[in-house]
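Support case: user asked for a sample of complex input and structure output to validate their parser. Sending the pair below.
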Amino acid sequence: MIQPTSSLDELAKRVGGEWVHLRDARELAVRTRRELRKALEGLDSEDTSIIVSGSLARDEYTASSDIDWTLLIDGSADPKHYDLFGQVDTVMSGFAAKPAGREGTFEAMVFSHDLVHEIGGENDTNRNLTRRLLLLLESQVVGREDAYRRVVRSVLDRYLLEDRGLWRGSGHRVPRFLQNDFARYWRTMAVDFAYKLRKRSGKGWAIRNIKLRMSRKLIYVSGLLACYCCHLDYTPHQRRRLFNSTDGQKEIVEHMEAIFRMTPLEIVANVLLRYPHLDNAARKILDSYDEFVGTLADEGKRAHLENLIEDKTDSDEIYQRVRQLSHVFREGLIDFFFDPNSDLDTLTKNYGVF
Amino acid sequence: MRPVGFSTGALAYADFRRGLAMCCNKPVQAIELSALRQNELIPLLEALDTLDLARFTHIAIHAPSQFDPEWEAALGARLRDETWRGWPIVLHPDALYDLSLWREMGSAVCIENMDKRKPIGRSARELESVFKHLPDAKFCFDIGHARQFDPTMTEAYLILRDFGHRLSQVHVSEVNTRSKHDPLSYASIIAFQEVAHLIPSDVPLILETPVSEDEMEMEIAKVQESLPLDRIMVAW
């Protein structure tokens, strides 16, 4: 079993899903984070948190995965932070199968001020956007979480409390400011796929393409669902009470914080559990995702996809199989998000499309 | 009118007599007699009957914020002897070792929420585990600590939501990044206003802001602006 209280586990039981690759990846992620926590013990403080992102944070970690990490700083500037960063880097290098990405988003010191204050506008760079949204969508702390929790709460406070429509509207209570940024990030990833193709002369095309179709799409999906949960998790009576008071605002911030503490797959499973009539869609989504994670866990297949050039993909069996999985994954998501028997299709039309 | 006053320790370091004297001609109705270091407590307790405290409608004792564990039983016994006065005895939860000693003191014990450096007692969740062991204890809400722990004031709201019914007094100050108490800034004032409505009008405010005698009245005005009475919406 994945975890006694896990939504994914409950869903697996209900729909008869095995999802062994997801279970293995989760176990390895939990074990690796535990080992990291032990190795990094004593380095962080109430003002610094060591954050991991990517597959290690999503519980989709495999032996060949890299480790995306950042040192989050929320406190007074201190020249010693650089030494701390060096120590963390040394520990992380001993764990990672390969170095983090080349864009400089990870393996860096990240300061809370830009994450909290630069939402939108000229100074909200691609890197800042990525770091901020991954903090919400796929991040976990290895060690002290004081700084991390303060920053996540401050970011959510901005997205939610500055969303006039969320509090003044009378219809669906979906945080559009936040959802728009998730949509922006999803499209940024898609555009960057083309950018990297050009910049790296096609190197790594196949693996990036597959990740875009599966894991990158999953984090967007989980962000969209998290925004829907702001509406779906409350009865009409609760919504009237919470969305019309300052105390209610604090309750909503706390609730959204709890949602973002879940992994993307847990968020998806948590919503799917509410709709037994969508069990077929659940199987499509999670069976295909499980096989995708299994493919990445297979070192031979992963290395093959990493080295596969675009011209050879049409006839490549491994690539074509994963591509086919991505189509099943997409079909399941369409069945889920455009389901006419729940409020989901209305929410998707209003917030996911127009 | 809500009682307002100072902690003697904020006014005069380790000198309760001087702190008390500074309040002499000021519009204060509350006082917290502070013995933040272990060696300050016994002299304070021995002096209690000699102090002129008649003008105060609210009096509290702040016990040492840390002490030798071997001294805890003696400290508890000495403070228990003073509970007949009905004054809250403010304790830092991270300083306590044997909670059964303090449980016996029931509602005389007043637990304070902590700043971000401390290992426990900072959030609503952490306080829950403290009050589980001290079911009758009262609560001293340190609004500066709560803001330092979470500048969005969400945690302050959660703490007051969950423990407001235990509220005995409020500590007010700005707590800076190095966890030192400072006079209130503009940012603190507007942050505190977010939860002002959750603090009942009869709950005393104890200023922990280190100010000179000349600055006391101005600081009181700032505190009253930060926690205005016209916003109150609850009675726990």
